[in-house]
Amino acid sequence: MSVRRRVLLLLKPLDVYPTRPTAVPKSPSSSPLAPKILSYLDDRVRVHKETINFCKDVLQRKSINWEPLLRNNLSQPVRHVDLVITVGGDGTLLQASHFLDDSVPVLGVNSDPTQADEVNAFSNEFDATRSTGYLCAATAGNFEQVLDEILEGHKLPSQLSRISVSLNGHCLPTYALNDILAAHPCPASVSRFSFRIKRDAETSSRLVNCRSSGLRVSTAAGSTAAMLSAGGFRMPSSSNVLQYMVREPILLSPVESPWLHGSIEPDQSMQIAWYNQEGVIYFDGSHVQYSIQHGDSIELSALAPILKVYLSQRESTNDIF
Question: I need a surface site. Which of 136, 194, 271, 277 has the fewest CB within 10 A?
Answer without folding.
Answer: 277
